[in-house]
From TrEMBL:
Record-given protein name: Purine nucleoside phosphorylase
MF-aspect GO terms: purine-nucleoside phosphorylase activity
Role summary: The purine nucleoside phosphorylases catalyze the phosphorolytic breakdown of the N-glycosidic bond in the beta-(deoxy)ribonucleoside molecules, with the formation of the corresponding free purine bases and pentose-1-phosphate.
Alphabetical list of SUPFAM superfamilies matching this protein: Purine and uridine phosphorylases
Keyword Transferase among record annotations: yes
Keyword Glycosyltransferase set for record: yes
Its EC number(s): 2.4.2.1
Assigned protein family: Belongs to the PNP/MTAP phosphorylase family.
Cross-referenced Pfam families: PNP_UDP_1
Length: 267
């Protein structure tokens, strides 16, 4: 695995002369943030040997290299999910590769279903902790060059970046929620009892991504900042569709882009 990570990073460097400082993962319906990046280069996943390919609508499937908020970034316009049939190790492979491309921290976004009754569709929630119910990507032999066998997860999301984002949001007039994200396998949306169970367990929102990527990032010592866009309210008892999730994500994307940009400016 380590040689594949290094080989893929080397291939990308051979195609793109760029030294990213920050990695960004864009969730369902959130790929429009790239319109605000001063793009230096793009690279389709399908053109990278041995790289997974996005199969979900709303995930374009390419790396975007450029500048945002005065920082050099590499953005994943499309991520990979366990429910697509990828192994947990394949799901986090791009995070590993971005680390070897030189990123020093990771920004993550996702579309999720709210289970906190105080939330509303369209809210931005800064993730302060998570519950992972997706198979852990660290299962199997540990690669010491990547990180320790038993990584600490007492601070999965950087408190420093969260505090900085709160200040950015306050100045920009962007209302923020804070809470716990629970990552589940999908691909079904949850039953009402499952939504209730996740709320009882301490979750504020639920989704089908993010937690494996964060685990891999923390394994490698990367600070993480993550935001969920609440695209539907699970406890409301209404039917959920992927199209609605994409649409609500697009509506909130402007505020998320402003938050990410402002945070990057302050780094």
């Amino acid at each position: 695995m380590l040689e594949r990570i290094k080989s893929t990073a080397s291939f990308i460097r051979s195609k793109v002369d760029f030294d990213p400082q920050v990695g960004i993962i864009l969730g369902t319906g959130l790929g429009g943030l790239v319109n605000h990046i001063d793009i230096a280069a793009t690279l389709d996943y399908r053109d990278i040997p041995d790289f997974p390919v996005s199969t979900v609508e709303g995930h374009a499937g390419r790396f975007i290299f450029g500048s945002l908020g005065g920082k050099r970034v590499v953005a994943m316009q499309g991520r990979f999910h366990y429910y697509e049939g990828y192994t947990p190790q394949q799901v986090v492979f791009p995070v590993r590769v971005m680390k070897f491309l030189g990123i020093r921290c990771l920004f993550v976004s996702n579309a999720s279903g709210g289970v906190n009754p105080m939330f509303r569709t369209g809210d931005l929630m800064v993730i302060t902790d998570h519950i992972n119910l997706i198979p852990n990507p660290l299962i199997g032999p540990n690669i010491d060059e990547l990180g320790t066998r038993f990584p600490d997860m007492s601070e999965p999301y950087s408190r420093k970046l969260i505090a900085l984002s709160d200040e950015v949001a306050r100045k920009a007039g962007i209302p923020l929620q804070h809470g716990c994200y629970i990552g589940v396998t999908g691909p079904t949306f949850e039953t009402q009892k499952e939504y209730s169970f996740y709320r009882t367990a301490g979750a504020d929102t639920v989704g089908m991504s993010t937690t494996p990527e964060v685990i891999a990032a923390r394994h490698m010592g990367l600070p993480v900042f993550a935001v969920s866009i609440i695209t539907n309210m699970g406890l409301a008892g209404l039917k959920s569709t992927h199209e609605e999730v994409q649409a609500e994500g697009a509506k909130a994307e402007v505020r998320m882009t402003k938050l990410f940009t402002g945070l990057l400016e302050e780094l």
